[in-house]
Write a structure and sequence with these properties.
The chain is α+β, with helices and mostly antiparallel strands. Helices cover 50% and strands 10% of the residues. It is built from 25 helices and 15 strands. A 5-stranded antiparallel beta sheet has the order 1-2-3-4-5. Strand 14 (293-296), helix 13 (302-317) and strand 15 form a beta-alpha-beta unit. Helix 1 packs across helix 4 (80-91) and helix 21 (466-477) crosses helix 23 (494-504). It starts with a helix and ends with a helix. Bound molecules: zinc ion.
């Protein structure tokens, strides 16, 4: 851009910043300056000031400031060269066209030629056109994204050769060709071609999708990295969607090119996709320039979930708000959902559920909070997700969420992250310690009243404490053994051993049980069962609320029915 310094000054001299700002902001004279409502953030009283003297603007609300170029870039979502071009046209200033390093010029030319060639080729191929229209890609969206078709084997190579302009080296550098045993060949053969553009609109690479029925090669084949194409710094669709992202204040991230194009076809235009790699910090930064919010709309499979988790971590670290949603089954990806239920796709493409809650909830669905191992897993998982967040405020925000999601019936002190729950420590000579926890008391009753014949009918799934559950399972297997024989058993797990010893050595401190031992044991078992269902009920209610906020009505209904049946069980246990 150095070469254009003169032009920049010329433009600044000939166009007044007040005139440009006034096209978007109603300005009022205030002394030497002008003020108005900031176009970059929502406000009711003006904190946006324009100074004609220094030809700069500044907002005292959101902090945005700059010159005429910054303003045009920001308000129109343009890259600097584009803003420069626009204002140069307006000022009638001639720009030097040497801003592009010439070593990349040949690659750019080849990419442009390829795009034209592929589009032309597609227009002649009925089968490919039919396939694309079956997939819901309208002519309009094909045109917008310059979708094309690479030809038969080496047809593009022959075409470029026939021009006689490009050297073998230049051709190979573009990534459009490969070389095998000294022979140059087309990289893309008979594939649907999606040009990949830089955020300023230059075609920098291609992604080629296999035609149906073609068994050769991977489903998607991308241009390898070249001097003009770095995957980590590119987002498919950003050039086409940046204005919509800026206007809507959020950006949808989906998995693939066809998702983006299908979404555009139904009017969702604030959507981009990374290029078959995990989301990178650079890509989050790129989005952040246009909007502070991201909605992850990834596939519903495991890889999709991992992508949300990865994306959340990077975005949270960068202070970007994230939301998440997945296509409800049976739809695998947003593209499939769009083909099946356009209205639902549009409904789901608004940010509702924050990505953190979404992620924790996905784990909740797979796990059982009644199980201490799962509970501890979840707490650690949540902790790990926000590990790299630097801001304590943001951390606290997520902290509250994980407490809400995991702490059943807990009124633990606030401000700390929930920690792992450990097996209660049995202290010496404390009368309360054994009775304070029903599960522990249950085991104590069995051991002290010689009730080990009762364990056969006990279902340990109701027990939250894994060590107690394991002890009971152990007793089930060895109910012919006396306690001292059990403790002598070599293969006894150390945790179980400690637990049983802790009880045995404190048996004297057990308060006298007034009930008949078998009745007492039964009562305690009922209490354990009903605690189990109470925790489960709370969890299901939370998940139901989440499903509602996700817009997944079917799931919410299922969970409501589940909650009702659990309530019934609890009622029956009370009788
Ligand atoms: Zn502002």
């Amino acid at each position: 851009m150095k070469d254009n310094r003169d032009s920049i000054n010329q433009i600044k001299e000939s166009i007044d910043i007040v005139t440009v700002v006034e096209r978007n902001v109603k300005l009022r004279k205030a002394g030497k300056n002008y003020s108005g409502l900031c176009p970059f953030h929502n406000e009711k009283t003006p904190s946006f000031i324009v100074s004609p003297d220094i030809q700069r603007f500044k907002c005292f609300g959101c902090g945005k400031s700059g010159d005429i170029f910054n303003f045009v870039q920001e308000i129109e979502g343009l890259e600097f060269p584009e803003a420069l071009k626009k204002l140069a046209d307006e000022a009638g200033v001639q720009l030097e066209d040497n801003s592009k390093p010439s070593k990349y010029k040949k690659i750019d030319e080849l990419n442009d030629l390829a795009a034209k060639y592929f589009v032309e080729n597609l227009s002649k191929n009925k089968q490919a056109k039919e396939y694309l229209s079956q997939r819901g890609l309208s002519d309009e969206s094909l045109e917008k994204f310059l979708v094309g078709l690479s030809g038969s084997y080496n047809s593009f190579y022959k075409y470029i050769q026939s021009l006689g302009i490009y050297s073998k080296d230049e051709m190979l550098k573009s990534g459009l060709f490969t070389e095998k045993e000294g022979k140059v060949k087309d990289r893309f053969v008979n594939r649907i071609m999606f040009p990949i553009r830089s955020s300023s609109g230059r075609i920098i690479a291609f992604s080629g999708r296999k035609m149906p029925g073609d068994d050769f090669g991977p489903k998607y084949l991308n241009t390898p990295e070249t001097p003009v194409f770095q995957k980590r710094e590119t987002l498919f669709g950003l050039y086409e969607s940046k204005n919509s992202i800026r206007k809507s204040k959020f950006c949808i991230l989906c998995e693939g090119q066809t998702d983006v194009i299908s979404a555009f076809a139904i009017g969702i235009e604030n959507i981009v996709a990374p290029l078959g790699t995990g989301l990178t910090e650079q890509q989050i930064e790129m989005i952040k320039r246009y909007a502070p919010n991201i909605l992850f709309f990834f596939d519903s499979d495991k890889a999709g979930q991992e992508a949300v988790s990865r994306g959340f971590k990077i975005a949270a670290k960068k202070g970007v708000n994230t939301y998440a949603v997945t296509p409800p089954s049976p739809h695998k990806d947003i593209d499939e959902l769009i083909q099946a239920d356009k209205d639902l796709a549009i409904k789901l493409s608004k940010p509702k559920l924050d990505a953190f809650t979404y992620l924790i909830n996905r784990e909740l669905e797979k796990r059982d909070l009644n199980n201490l191992k799962d509970y501890n897993f979840l707490v650690n998982y949540g902790n790990e997700l926000i590990e790299e967040v630097e801001s304590q405020d943001i951390k606290n925000y997520y902290l509250k969420k994980i407490k809400f999601l995991t702490q059943s019936n807990s009124n633990e002190q606030s401000g700390t992250f929930p920690s792992e729950i450990k097996t209660p420590q049995i202290k010496k000579d404390t009368r309360t310690s054994l009775t304070s926890d029903p599960e522990l008391y249950f085991l104590a009753l069995i051991l002290s009243k010689d009730l080990s014949d009762k364990v056969d009918k006990i279902d340990t799934k109701y027990f939250r404490n894994l060590n107690i559950a394991a002890s009971i399972e152990y007793l089930k297997k060895h109910n012919d053994l006396k306690v001292e024989q059990i403790l002598e058993n070599e293969d006894l797990d150390l945790n179980i051993k400690n637990l049983i010893e802790g009880i045995i050595f404190n048996i004297d401190s057990l308060p006298e049980e007034l009930r008949e031992p078998r009745i007492a044991l039964n009562d305690v078992y009922l209490r354990i069962k009903s605690d189990y269902y109470a925790r489960m009920l709370e969890l299901v209610r939370k998940q139901q609320a989440i499903a509602e906020s996700e817009g997944n009505d079917e799931k919410a209904d299922d969970l409501l029915a589940k909650a009702e049946s659990i309530s019934n069980i609890i009622q029956q246990l009370k009788v």
